[in-house]
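Lab notes, practical 5.
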Amino acid sequence: MKIQINNIDRYVSKNGLKDVCKTVHYTMIVSKTVGKYEDVVTYHVSAIGTVELDAPNSNDYIEYKNLTEEKVKDWVKY
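Output from the prediction step:
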């Protein structure tokens, strides 16, 4: 499974914090290879989705410019 982050919507400020992420837009891609020898075929399926994020508090807040791709993918997975 592969997760591709397409876009992140954000607030300029929220609850006294700046550049706060609110929605993650993503594509999830799953591939499966079946068959053997000359009859090997790979199938791909994808789905586009969004995840609405809860407003952070000052303890778990990460400013947009400090986000990593892995952190955003964690938000999508859970």
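Observations recorded by the TA: DSSP finds one helix and three strands in the chain. Residues 26 and 49 are 5 Å apart (CA to CA).
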